[in-house]
Amino acid sequence: MKTVVFTALLLFLCGCASLQPPEGPDTLPQLIYQAPLPPWPYSSFIQGINLELMLRIASDGSVQKALLLTSSGSSAWDSLAIATIRQWRFSPARMGTQPIASWIQQKVRVYFEPPAPMVISELACEDHGLIDSLYALLATGVPFDSLARRYSVFASREKGGFLGEVDLRSFPTHVRRQLANLRVGGITKPLALGQNVVIYKRLGRVQ
């Protein structure tokens, strides 16, 4: 049975509880992790589904509330989808440098895709200048894991950036596309992921 992945069509701030803030944030929330949505429960072939979501994003980037403004046509699938969407993570909206809670309304197109496992490592930095320097060092042959242990800001730094086997559907579209075209041993260019910039390396097997 195939599973589903979504592509966002529109993202805009709707404000706090009143949905009409007097002043918008300087930085809008950005999706950094999406748990793959549940399989479609019916055998009929459907190319895709259009959904509209209202999400309350906390100041730590977690999803506090998730509402479906349009239904898929299956109440059972809708309930499972809402539970999955609550596992998503965003970089929070910011007012200056201060993270703030916000509402977003998002239209998404859900496509049916099989799982896409890949073994990867990551190296993440907040400083764009630093990540460019590390990217240049990787091009000269400096080991990926040693740079990740020293400079990465993600928890995976303790394992040299090693994430193991992951499902590419959990990444935002722009990251997923870069990883899908990556050969074993290859690295991506620095990719924006929320407030950070990340370089990924594809590995051939679980180490």
Molecular structure report:
The protein folds into two domains: 3-113, TolA/TonB C-terminal domain; 117-203, Chitinase A, domain 3 (Roll), CATH 3.10.50.40. The strands form four sheets. A four-stranded antiparallel β-sheet has the order 1-8-3-4, with helices on one face. A four-stranded antiparallel β-sheet has the order 10-9-12-11, sandwiched between helices. Strands 2-5 form a two-stranded antiparallel ribbon. Strand 6 (93-95) and strand 7 (98-100) form a beta hairpin. It has 207 residues and is an alpha+beta fold. Helices cover 19% and strands 39% of the residues. The protein is globular and about 55 Å long. It has helices spanning 75-85, 128-139, 144-151, 173-180; strands spanning 3-15, 30-33, 48-57, 63-68, 89-91, 93-95, 98-100, 102-113, 117-125, 162-167, 191-193, 196-203.
Number of structurally distinct domains: 2
Output the radius of gyration: 18 Å
- Beta-strand portion reads 35-45%
Architecture per CATH nomenclature, i.e. the level-2 architecture of the largest domain? 2-Layer Sandwich
CATH topology group of the largest domain = TolA/TonB C-terminal domain
Please give the order of strands in the largest beta sheet. Answer: 1-8-3-4
Structure class: alpha+beta
Taken in chain order, the helices and strands follow as EEEEHEEEEEHHEHEE
N→C terminal distance: 29 Å
Outline:
globular
